[in-house]
Specification:
Shape of chain A: elongated
Helix content of chain A: 25-40%
Oligomer: homodimer
Structural class of chain A: alpha/beta
Largest sheet of chain A: 6 strands, parallel
Distance between the termini of chain A: 33 Å
Strand order of the largest sheet of chain A: 7-6-8-9-10-11
Radius of gyration of chain A: 22 Å
Strand content of chain A: 5-15%
Order of helices and strands of chain A: EHEEEHEHHEHEHEHEHEEH
Number of strands of chain A: 11
Chain lengths: 301, 301
């Protein structure tokens, strides 16, 4: 009987559900790939070379940078990777909007006042902004930013999408008029360090920056400095260069900064929905049809 | 020369701007109504009876409950009140959405963790919900909730509007299936205490309640109790029965409660925009045309 290596943590009910849906396959929990044809989840990259019977890995992530250093010229002959492209668009876009609105509508400041039982009242109002009509520059225009653009439609925002084909000159030209900059790009040689001190300095002081992709995009020291000096209005960071963020990292206390701890993709039913995607792809696999979400290892996302 | 009593705080630049726009009128700062034909702002209610030359008050608020106890059978013969109906729809709807998303996407909890420099990471995800597809019961369907309904359109929410013509039976029938209850109603005998302990108990434990109108709507002791016991998922309160909220009030520390201190209508340019409304209505007044936003004192909003 063919075997599926289960590299995710499932509840007993989820295991039972998956067993029923994957009839004809044996589930092998614990993450070992030995003898398995399929893996569900993100197995240790170093285990792939020795897993000779493995033909397909359904990742439980969108990113697959941890596998990019392997010898795919060889591995690629027998092994297909599929990712969860698009899977996190709704939750991440909702968290992004939550963070942006928290900053523009002062909820972060109000939370601090609440902890101090400090009523300020009317004077708060003069510090508040509207998102309606704002200019939103989107660095990356994949599923997350496309969904966010949809959510922004009734706000009448001017959305400026910059996709992977956009040049650095186009980015530099867009930054000075941005009210909001939302970055949702993968970690690639092209994006690493792209938002350096010089580019951050192109943003106006009213700008809010949102990073949803990978922490490597941003020069964090320059970002902290700009926020401390009031040269940027705020930041929503779902990702940081170090995760977990060390307890002595300056970002924890940088003003007007919301750290969402790489939670933006989460939902209560996240694993159930991941199982649904896997089961759907498993049916395609058995029928010899094209799998959904095949990772482009050359492109890197 | 006719006189305008200025009952709002204006900057020197705003005063100069208003002077130019109100050519032919003398501006009388400080809130005294003596000899004035028009008032801009909310003068002391007890001053109206003696202000015999006063013909029109352009309020700087939507609510006008503080004037409802006066003898309008008499006053109404010579005096018109106009309010800012619709003026606060965009900022209040944006703050409402900010508060809802903060709770569903866990930003309130993340802010607490951030203050403690405490990285939790992945386990946060299982506590997060999506607003997409939620059932949103709207108590009151005036400009604020109509705008919020627009902002919710791309989320695919099921909006259930209850207007002033809806019955209490319709409200009671709508509550058990609400994911979100957004109240934006004025203080009237019909709304006072409407959300009492019995009605709050009709909401499911996953429900978030948002109050944007007046604090008198809600039994706050019952609300606190429900939130403490986890019989409600959260509350966003722009208004409370007592404002400022006393420092020993239990709402300050009620779990999953966001207090926005009656700031939801605020924007940086709020007074400039109020002047624009007044100037526009002043032109109508001089031309003998109908004023915009005439307050219905009998209806109370």
């Amino acid at each position: 009987m063919s075997c599926i290596a289960v590299c995710v943590d499932l509840s007993p009910a989820q295991t039972e559900h998956l067993s029923r849906q994957a009839e004809g396959y044996r589930l092998q929990p614990g993450g070992s790939l030995a003898g398995c044809e399929i893996a569900f989840g993100n197995p240790a990259p170093e285990a792939l070379a020795g897993a000779e019977s493995l033909r397909w890995i359904q990742l439980e992530s969108v990113g697959f940078g941890e596998y990019s250093g392997l010898d795919w010229a060889d591995l690629g002959n027998r092994l297909t990777l599929t990712n969860l492209a698009g899977f996190f668009a709704e939750p991440v876009a909702e968290t992004a909007l939550a963070g942006i609105l928290s900053l523009t509508r002062g909820l972060n400041r109000l939370a601090t006042l609440q902890a101090e039982r400090h009523w300020v009242g009317d004077p708060i109002r003069t510090g508040l902004r509207l998102l309606g009509g704002a200019r939103v520059v989107m660095l990356g225009y994949g599923s997350v930013n496309r969904r966010l653009a949809e959510l922004l439609t009734p706000f009448g925002c001017k959305v400026v999408p910059l996709c992977s084909g956009s040049t650095r000159e186009q980015l530099d030209a867009a930054l000075p008029s941005a009210d909001i900059l939302v970055a949702a790009v993968p970690d690639t040689p092209q994006t690493r360090g792209l938002l350096n001190a010089d580019r951050l300095a192109l943003l106006p002081s009213k700008a809010v920056i949102v990073n949803l992709g990978r922490g490597t995009l941003v020069d964090e020291a320059a970002l902290c400095d700009a926020l401390v000096r009031g040269r940027l209005a705020g930041a929503v960071l779902d990702v940081t260069q170090e995760e977990p963020l060390p307890s002595d990292h300056p970002l924890w206390t940088t003003p007007n900064t919301l750290l969402t701890q790489h939670s933006a993709g989460g939902t209560m039913d996240e694993m159930d929905r991941k199982i649904d995607v896997f089961v759907d792809n498993l049916m395609r696999y058995r029928q010899g049809r094209d799998l959904l979400g095949v990772a482009d290892l050359k492109r890197g996302y």
